[in-house]
Structure formats: structure tokens, C-alpha cells
């Protein structure tokens, strides 16, 4: 089709070019005809003007001849009469009387002295014409002549005959008028026409062996393609006026017209070719864009791996084939541990490069017919065809985890990542793509709950747990809206003064069907669903309202500590909500202490310090909860504006038997003293634990030994709760 388009475009080019040449030639012919018509009109006018002016000038000889005849050849006072005649005929420069053909009188004489005494019958080329005029009794005009007195002119000679006594005529001589050519030309329009591009010449054609002579001309050569000629009637002779108006650059004009025709033909042919070719180009462009859109729709733009959508389709196809052919299909879900920390600390560009390297390593660990996909963020999936048994799968999964754990060199640094993995099998765990995808996600979630770098196979208990959490999430959402939640307060005791120094607020749920639920039963569902954020703000508002109620009742008040979840701490509206609740309730901020886990504080340290500083400006105290279970260092701890460290209950539990736990606690207490931080030991359940902690320098403790959490309003601080054994 493109060849046909080119042939058609070539035909259009040739046709347009020929049409342009024809139009150009036709236009040139019409212009020449118009010019010829114009020149014909002008030459008629100018010939009439020349004839009129010549006849008018020659009338001067008639007047002078009349004087000669009247005076019988002896005109009295010739000079005076000649002067009068010249005034009436400005184109005549001088008048001459030539009795017998010899110039005897000339007016004006000055400047014409050389012509006096000249025998005009013997004067060069004019002698024959002069003799013929005498014999034929007709006026003649000669010229152009080079005058003996200098200059060039046309001379009109009028023969004069006188009657003798017998009444017979005899030749007396000539009366001549010298007509100045420049003066004659000045009273015509020819000079003006010359300025408008017309060319002309007045010539005396060749005659009797005499060559053609130019009387006057425009000075420019006539245009041979457009010359108009008209006879000028003069006495005893025939002259011709030739005129043209041919453009000197006519050939250039024609060439320019041909060039325009060529340009127009090329342009039109190109446009035709473009218009005819455009559908094919657009179709090719659409095909290309369609392929690109298909690629974007079904592949990850960064790694080039299959995306979630195509994975779903291909997994469905694989399962259909497997149902006929038999065999086992495995779906592996992978998630990079702590990828967000790398992304935040080193930038998204480094994070993208890391993802590309992970994709390349995954491709290198599986067969060519297996499917590797990126689901989004730092999540990947692998579909293994004919995967074998669970033991073989575990070995391959461990091989993949090991390959991904090798250091990645980026920005002159070696990055080491770990991977959590969830695995599900078909047809054992399900026979549809949606089932396997859901099962693999549950297995991955279970793997991440176990810790980093773990591999977990799907089992039916995971599905039951997921269903339980989903139902629990719905109930929790209802509980938040219908006041089914309550606060319980556990005392924090000052051993040195033997009194309650503060309370920790803990949330409880009065489930309408399951009864009283502890935080460990529903907090994971709240964290997974995001409900932990509004739940945290509810706890904060309730604590503030309880404190204000005690203040207004003029009852004793001690600070209350409450837990801030990682999601709530990273909520972009966290500081706004805290400030709003403080303003709404009017609680003194120094009565609040926020307990934040060690791992939460260490995530994105710069942002953490900013938030903590903002809380300190408000007057709220900060406590690091579960200290010792994370990965903070002394150097990092010094940067954090915190007030208290809470030693995790796992170190307190075996303090009486485990020397290592005792050393850890002593180190934490000593370090806190150096940093001027308070220390609270959690999980104190015996007098022996309390005594050891006091001996180590810990002055504040919390645990069942001093009181279990009590549901209701904030309790009084006196009397001190009795130890509970």
C-alpha cells in the first residue's frame, strides 16, 4: 500500500508540475498580449504627437516662404521676422534662407556661423533628397543630421518658387527650419514612458542605398518579443516609431514561475503522500502505543517483571493446564524486610536500583518457564511449575532467600537485605488463582509475624485466623462507634517513697458476645486494619477527660502513661490531633507521658526527633517502652529527648535466676543514671524481684505484685495497693 501511495503521489507531482508550467506559459502569453495591446495604444498616441509636432514645426517654413514670395525673394528685415516665428515654434532652433540652394541668411546667427554659405545641394546624404524636393515642388525633411555648426537635428526644407514677368514659375531657393530633436522629444510623453519601462526609437528606414538611421530613442534595446511599429508620416519621406514594453527580466520571471510550479507540485505531492500515508502511520503508532500500554498494563515499569494483573491471568491459565496435566504448582510471596528504612534513608533512586537487582536475582534462581512478578512496592511473587514436594520447595525457597541476602553494592555501600516468604501449593491449598493469592498473602503475613528472614507454608489455620481477624475488625469498628471500649489503670510505684507515682492506661473491650477482651486479643487486628490510629486518639481523649475530672473534683492527681502505636506515631496528623485534644480538654500536658516502643523511635530517626521535640515543647513526657528488645545504641539514645526507660518484663521475669538478665538490668540502670533518665521495671510479680531491682538502683516498678489494671476511672493514689501474690 505504501508503494501505491508513492506512485499516486508521483502522479500528482507530475500533473501539478505540468499544470503549473501550462498556467505559467498561459499567464505569460496573456501578459504579452496585454502589453502588446497597451503598446499599440501608446504608439498610436505618440505617432500622432510626433506627426503633429513635426507638422507644426514645419509650418514655420511656410510662414517664412510666404514672406519670401511676397517680397519677390528679398524679404525685408529677415532677422526680426524670423525671431517672431521662432517665438511661436519653440522646437525650431533656427531658420535659414538659401537662395539657389546656398545658405545666405541664418537666424539666429550666433552659433550657426559655420552653416553660412553652405550649398545644400552638395551637402552629403541630403543632396539627393534636396534635389528631389526642388524638382517635385514638395517640402522635404532630412535627418537626423550632424550640423556643420555642431549638434544633431532634423532639417525641414521648403522649396520656394517665384513668378517672373511672364507669369512663369522659377525656382528661387529653400526656406529651412532646423528642428532640435531634444526639444521635439521633450514635448512628447516618450521620456515619461521610458521611466515606466517602455523602450522606443524613431528611425528613418533604409532607402536608396542609405542605411537606417535613428532619429531618437530611449537608449535601451527594444524587447524583440513585444515590438510594435507604426509609420510616421513626414514630408517627402517615411519614418517609423518602434515601441516595446518587454520586461528585461522576462526570462527570470518565467523561470521563477516554473520554480513556483515545481515548489507547488512538490508541496502538493508531499501533502498527498502525507495524507495517504497518515492512516498507515497512525495505525503503526496506535499499534506501538497499544503494545506500550499492554506492556504497562501487564508488566512492572521498573523491573520489567509481570505485574499483579498479568500474574492473576497467567496463574489462572497455569492452574487450568495443571488440572488437565496433573502435577503441582507453587506460589511464593516474597517481601523485603526493612526496605522502607533503606528507601527513606538512602532515597528512592537507590531503592529502585535495589528492586531491580532483586528482580534480576529472582530471575536467576528459577527456570525460564517459571513466572516472576512484582506485585508492588517491595513485594514479589514466583510461580513454580511442577514444583515437586514440600521438601524440595523449602530447599529452593532457602536458596532464593540466601541469594537475595548477598550484599548489593549501591552508592559505594554494601546493602544487605533479608526476605520473608509465604508459600502455598496447588491443588493442595486451592485450585483458583484468587485462592492461591490469598493463601500466599496469609502465609507471608504469618512469616513476617515470626520475624525477619522466615519462610512459612500456608495451612488452614491461617485462613481461620484471617477470618477471625476480619470479623474482629468489624466488631472493633462497631465498638469504637458504640462505646464498648474501656480503660484500665495499673499503678507505677515509687519504691523509695512507697506510693503510687503514676498510672499506665490500658484499653479493654467489653465484647457483647465474647465478654471482656484483653489487648493482645484485638490489638493485632486493629494494627492490621488501621483502626489502631482512631483507637489511640480515643485513649488519649479519655485519659485527658479523666484527669480533668479529678482536677475539677479537687482529688489527688498523678501523671498517666499511655501507649502510642507505631501507626499513630507516624500519622501525618499526629501532632495536630494531640494539640486539638489538649485544647479541647484543657488538661495540663505535664500529666501525660507517651510510651513509645524502641523500634518505633529508631525508624526514621530524623522525623522521630522532630516529633519528640514538638511533644516536649507541649510539656508531654516521653518514655521508651520495652527497652532492650530493639536495636538502639547509646549514641542514638543520647539524641532522643526522652525522660524514661521502661525495662521489658522479659528481663525482669528471671532476674533471680538468670545472671545475664541481672547484668543487663544493672547496665541499663547505670546508663540511665549517666543520661539522667528515669527507669521503670515492668512485670514485677514478687517481693524478691522488687528487692533486687531496688538494690540495683531502680526506684520505680510496675507489675501484678503492686496491682493489676483496674477498669474504670483513674484510681486514687492512697492507700497504696497491697501486694497481690
TrEMBL record:
InterPro entries: Biofilm_reg_signaling (IPR052155), CHASE_dom (IPR006189), CHASE_sf (IPR042240), EAL_dom (IPR001633), EAL_sf (IPR035919), GGDEF_dom (IPR000160), Nucleotide_cyclase (IPR029787), Rev_trsase/Diguanyl_cyclase (IPR043128). One of its GO terms (molecular function) is catalytic activity. One of its GO terms (cellular component) is membrane. It is found in: Membrane. SMART domains: CHASE, EAL, GGDEF. The keyword Membrane applies. Its main location: membrane. The keyword Transferase does not apply. Residues 469-723 form the EAL domain. Keywords: Membrane, Transmembrane, Transmembrane helix. The chain crosses the membrane at residues 6-23, 247-272. Its cofactor is Mg(2+). It comes from the Bacteria. Residues 108-194 form the CHASE domain. GO terms for biological process: signal transduction. It holds the Pfam family EAL. Coiled coil: none annotated. Residues 327-460 form the GGDEF domain. NCBIfam families: GGDEF (TIGR00254). PANTHER family: BIOFILM ARCHITECTURE MAINTENANCE PROTEIN MBAA, DIGUANYLATE CYCLASE DGCP. This is Diguanylate cyclase. It comes from Marinobacterium aestuarii. The lineage of its organism: Bacteria, Pseudomonadati, Pseudomonadota, Gammaproteobacteria, Oceanospirillales.
Amino acid at each position: 500500500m505504501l508503494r501505491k501511495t508513492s506512485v499516486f503521489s508521483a502522479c500528482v507531482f507530475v500533473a501539478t508540475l505540468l499544470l503549473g508550467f501550462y498556467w505559467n506559459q498561459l499567464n505569460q502569453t496573456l501578459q504579452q498580449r496585454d502589453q502588446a495591446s497597451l503598446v499599440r495604444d501608446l504608439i498610436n498616441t505618440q505617432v500622432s504627437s510626433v506627426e503633429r509636432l513635426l507638422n507644426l514645426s514645419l509650418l514655420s517654413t511656410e510662414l517664412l516662404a510666404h514672406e519670401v514670395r511676397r517680397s519677390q525673394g528679398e524679404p525685408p528685415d529677415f532677422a526680426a521676422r524670423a525671431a517672431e516665428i521662432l517665438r511661436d515654434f519653440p522646437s525650431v532652433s533656427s531658420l535659414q534662407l538659401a537662395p539657389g540652394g546656398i545658405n545666405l541668411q541664418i537666424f539666429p546667427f550666433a552659433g550657426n556661423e559655420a552653416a553660412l554659405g553652405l550649398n545644400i545641394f552638395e551637402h552629403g546624404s541630403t543632396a539627393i533628397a534636396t534635389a528631389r524636393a526642388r524638382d517635385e515642388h514638395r517640402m522635404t525633411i532630412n535627418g537626423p543630421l550632424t550640423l556643420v555648426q555642431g549638434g544633431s537635428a532634423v532639417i525641414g526644407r521648403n522649396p520656394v518658387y517665384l513668378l517672373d514677368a511672364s507669369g512663369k514659375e522659377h525656382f528661387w531657393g529653400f526656406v529651412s527650419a532646423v528642428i532640435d530633436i531634444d526639444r521635439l522629444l521633450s514635448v512628447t510623453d516618450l521620456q515619461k514612458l521610458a521611466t515606466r519601462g517602455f523602450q522606443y526609437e524613431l528611425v528613418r528606414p533604409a532607402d536608396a542605398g542609405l542605411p537606417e538611421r535613428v532619429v531618437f530613442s530611449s537608449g535601451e534595446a527594444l524587447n524583440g518579443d513585444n515590438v510594435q511599429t507604426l509609420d510616421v508620416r513626414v514630408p517627402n519621406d517615411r519614418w517609423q516609431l518602434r515601441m516595446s514594453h518587454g520586461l528585461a527580466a522576462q526570462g527570470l520571471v518565467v523561470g521563477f514561475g516554473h520554480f513556483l510550479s515545481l515548489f507547488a507540485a512538490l508541496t502538493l505531492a508531499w501533502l498527498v503522500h502525507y495524507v495517504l500515508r497518515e492512516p498507515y502511520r497512525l495505525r503503526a503508532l496506535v499499534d506501538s502505543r497499544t503494545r506500550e500500554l499492554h506492556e504497562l498494563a501487564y508488566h512492572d515499569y521498573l523491573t520489567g517483571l509481570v505485574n499483579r494483573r498479568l500474574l492473576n491471568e497467567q496463574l489462572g491459565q497455569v492452574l487450568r493446564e495443571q488440572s488437565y496435566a496433573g502435577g503441582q504448582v507453587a506460589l511464593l510471596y516474597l517481601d523485603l524486610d526493612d526496605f522502607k528504612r533503606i528507601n527513606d534513608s538512602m532515597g528512592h533512586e537507590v531503592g529502585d536500583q535495589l528492586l531491580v537487582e532483586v528482580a534480576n536475582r529472582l530471575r536467576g534462581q528459577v527456570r525460564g518457564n517459571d513466572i516472576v512478578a512484582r506485585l508492588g512496592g517491595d513485594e514479589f511473587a514466583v510461580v513454580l511449575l511442577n514444583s515437586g514436594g514440600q521438601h524440595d520447595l523449602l530447599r529452593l525457597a532457602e536458596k532464593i532467600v540466601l541469594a537475595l541476602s548477598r550484599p548489593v553494592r549501591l552508592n559505594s555501600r554494601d546493602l544487605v537485605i533479608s526476605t520473608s516468604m509465604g508459600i502455598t501449593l496447588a491443588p493442595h491449598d486451592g485450585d483458583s488463582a484468587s485462592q492461591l493469592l490469598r493463601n500466599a498473602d496469609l502465609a507471608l503475613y504469618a512469616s513476617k509475624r515470626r520475624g525477619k528472614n522466615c519462610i512459612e507454608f500456608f495451612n488452614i489455620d491461617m485462613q481461620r485466623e484471617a477470618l477471625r481477624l476480619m470479623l474482629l475488625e468489624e466488631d472493633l469498628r462497631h465498638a469504637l462507634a458504640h462505646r464498648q471500649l474501656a480503660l484500665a489503670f495499673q499503678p507505677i510505684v515509687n519504691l523509695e517513697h512507697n506510693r503510687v507515682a503514676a498510672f499506665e492506661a490500658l484499653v479493654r473491650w467489653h465484647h457483647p458476645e465474647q465478654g471482656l477482651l484483653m489487648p493482645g486479643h484485638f490489638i493485632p487486628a486493629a494494627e492490621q486494619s488501621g483502626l489502631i490510629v482512631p483507637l489511640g486518639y480515643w485513649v488519649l481523649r479519655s485519659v485527658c477527660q479523666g484527669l480533668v475530672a479529678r482536677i475539677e473534683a479537687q482529688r489527688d492527681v498523678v501523671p498517666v502513661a499511655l501507649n502510642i502505636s507505631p501507626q499513630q506515631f507516624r500519622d501525618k496528623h499526629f501532632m495536630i490531633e494531640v494539640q486539638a485534644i489538649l485544647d479541647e480538654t484543657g488538661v495540663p500536658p505535664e500529666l501525660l507521658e507517651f510510651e513509645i516502643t524502641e523500634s518505633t523511635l529508631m525508624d526514621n530517626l530524623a522525623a522521630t526527633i522532630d516529633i519528640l521535640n514538638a511533644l516536649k515543647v507541649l510539656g508531654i513526657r516521653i518514655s521508651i517502652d520495652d527497652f532492650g528488645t530493639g536495636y538502639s545504641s547509646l549514641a542514638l539514645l543520647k539524641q532522643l529527648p526522652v525522660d524514661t526507660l521502661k525495662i521489658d518484663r522479659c528481663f525482669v521475669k528471671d532476674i533471680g535466676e538468670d545472671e545475664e538478665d541481672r547484668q543487663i538490668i544493672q547496665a541499663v540502670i547505670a546508663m540511665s543514671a549517666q543520661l539522667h533518665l528515669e527507669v521503670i521495671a515492668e512485670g514485677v510479680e514478687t517481693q524478691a524481684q522488687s528487692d533486687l531491682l531496688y538494690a540495683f538502683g531502680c526506684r520505680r516498678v510496675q507489675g501484678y505484685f503492686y496491682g493489676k489494671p483496674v477498669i474504670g476511672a483513674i484510681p486514687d493514689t492512697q492507700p497504696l495497693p497491697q501486694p497481690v501474690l
